[in-house]
Amino acid sequence: EFLKLQSASGILLFVFTVVAIVWSNSRWSDSYEEWWHTPISFGFGAIVFSKSLLHWINDGLMTVFFFVVGLEIKREILIGELSSLKKAMLPVVAAVGGMAIPALIYVGFTRGTPAVSGWGIPMATDIAFSLGVLTLLGKRVPIQLKIFLTAFAIVDDIGAVIVIAFFYASSIAWGYLAIAAFVLILLVCANWLGVRHLLLYTVLGVILWLAFLDSGIHATVAGVLLAMTIPARSNLDKRGFLKKSHSILEQRKGDNPRQGNSDSEERDQSTMRDPGQINEDFKSPLQRFEHALHPWLVFVIMPLFAFANAGVRFEGGLGSLIADAVPLGVFLGLVLGKQVGITLFSWLAVKSRIASLPSSVTWRDIYGAAWLGGIGFTMSLFIAGLAFGDTPLMAESKVGIYAASLVAGVGGLLILRRRTLSAQKEKSRRAVGD
């Protein structure tokens, strides 16, 4: 279900990106900028928050994005691919290489200039786009490769959050930060005391976000911190769960399954729904938040972010922009740095025996996934906005991000497609031999 949602999100992201680019280069381009810079204000008494529509998307809706990312990170650490040292080492080491090498390449192009502050841009991997491309190959790609790509993309997200929190913070407002710390302590205490009501965590989460909004640390960090406090275990009463389920099934024992009348079918549907509702009631707050928010994230928040941030005007011509240091650094960082960093560090991890290659996964698969890691898009655009704001460097970085994401996506698709074609030929050859 997670992979299907991510794949569909990748298609929507692409559509909204194209619309944003076309709009921003049409004769109505001024309306694109004016629309997203429309001021919106709200407040409580003397406290007033006033920002543009673009800022509310990037500081508000993207906090929900980072909250869900935080939930995914916590789930992976507790029960997923990062839950044990043995399972985690390969994607963790691969992600470290996939962050370090691209950043170094970018710094090499922009060293000694103000643009060097964008070194975090090529570190990111867009999980929606990369899984969307991988899904185009269907079942011919082993599930272990999809898990590997998801795991190292999530580790990438952890790195991006750390970079945003420590390297893209403005001047600190200690009063607001103190309020945020106090609310965070309340959230931790609520988890420790066994509180499982989503409303409490929602209200405290909104207060935490408002405190971070003017604290000097980007508000999206509040989303990740809130996610870390959400209980991952439910107050599961196994005896009560079994008793309720058994009671529902007992009520249907005497019915004749061949009756086929509408009353019987309605009872059948009710019988199937009731255990599902019981199961829903016993889910942990983390599961309930993640399942409720994930569709909103992939079908509303991420496409809206792309629509608001992807527009770029090619006034001087595309060729002149690509030749600049920023787009070249971003492009080579994502395309070259990702494939070298992920593949090389994965190989070193396996050869040094601190990790092992997943079953059914070949080095061609790892190399193809490394190419897909060069699709930075959402997180790269977000970090570019923090680094460059409304300066001309922002437009240059977008060109590099778009070009790299396109080349990396096509390159990864072709490499992995050759893998699947080779596997099909080998299967056919064996069938003929038999």
Structure commentary:
By secondary structure, the protein is mainly alpha-helical. Helix content is 73%, strand content 3%. It has 17 helices and 2 strands. It has helices at 2-24, 29-36, 53-79, 85-110, 127-135, 143-167, 174-192, 198-213, 220-229, 238-251, 262-281, 285-309, 318-322, 325-351, 363-372, 377-388, 392-433; strands spanning 39-44, 47-52. It has a two-stranded antiparallel sheet. A hairpin with a 2-residue loop joins strand 1 (39-44) and strand 2. Helix 4 (85-110) runs antiparallel to helix 14, helix 5 packs parallel to helix 17 (392-433) and helix 12 (285-309) crosses helix 16 (377-388). The two termini are 37 Å apart. The model has no long low-confidence stretch (mean pLDDT 83).
